[in-house]
What does this fold into?
Amino acid sequence: MQQGRARCQLAALLLGLMGLLTGGSEFQHHRYEDMVGALFAVHSECPYITRIYSIGRSVEGRHLYVLEFSDNPGIHEALEPEFKYVGNMHGNEVLGRELLIRFSQFLCEEYRAGNHRIMRLIHDTRIHILPSMNPDGYEVAARQGPEFNGYLVGRGNFREIDLNRNFPDLNALMYYYEKTKGRNHHLPLPDNWEQQVEPETLAIIKWMQNYNFVLSANLHGGAVVANYPFDKSRDPRFRGRTTYSATADDKIFRKLARTYSYAHGWMHKGWNCGDFFDEGITNGASWYSLSKGMQDFNYLYTNCFEITLELSCDKFPPAAALPREWLANREALVSYLEEVHHGIKGMVYDENNNPITNVEISVAGVNHDVTSGVDGDYFRLLLPGTYKVTASSSGYIPSTSTVTVGPAEATQVCFTLMDTLTTCKSVKTHGNKNTIIESVFA
It folds into this structure.
């Protein structure tokens, strides 16, 4: 652990020196037009590694703009993981918004300056940055400003709906399936779900459906802690009390949360904002239980692992505090992003070397599967160790491999699945009748 902390401190120092050399950017709060201008300015400075796109509009019609970083913007490259940062879900929690704007500028600056660490990240990762999920709420909060902003003013969207209580509740279904040995991933959405969510939530869900995200973080404010799933308690009798609600990937989530906490300036120290969180991390339900949250939805509906980062005691810190907050979070934002490259990844083919989509990748002993994307590639975050991994899909014979995962880059494991119709059957013809003899595979 001490060596890990030393590496984080050294990396932070090197990034700090690079930031001094490249001059940095002025710190300020960005209203909607200013934010959009800042994103387009980054794209103008780094046009060959960035793309700006909108995933939808807010209630008041503001675009939810995403800035993408990649060596091939707009294209998913096989075996290159998709990563996202989401800020400003609660409109009056503004630090995440400003950090992601500055992080976008930083990635562009460091890439142009030849920072090998940043260049490698952009070449090997498709990075999506959404600085503001709730631009309408932000404008309400910003009209009051840092000095007079209330705890709840601007928290919700224009209709005053809390977007982190607005996703379809898949936890209840998951907890039922755990008892009945039902499905453990990609749970179905309820009927008419699109009419039950806000436009901003709808845009996020459609975004998740269109991109095979592997890892994500959602930036909040009002505390300083890295919060990991599940947010919702399993037992309704304890919804009003704190009770640990672990996912099947609890150890991985704890590691992800610690990665950010220990790379942060002071999160890992535990005592912040009058609260104590050991190592600066917490299970969501162990802190307080909430339903219809975004990080649980990511895990239960998609392949994506997401944690919630509470980054400041002050929900709307003054502009003068932003440089210090940036220095505290800069290395953590980079280190957490790098976690997307751990575990295993690979391709799934049929016997004719055609990629197969929607193949279930299961790990023995872990009750949560992921699936291959449209290009046949899959990504599975895992801690170092040896695992038995199985790829299976309807109409194919499952394939299993024993895989050893190290602490560095993801181990590549490819699977070839044999079609049961062509490999498991032979046909004998007797007159006008066909007798099909099936081979039996263990």
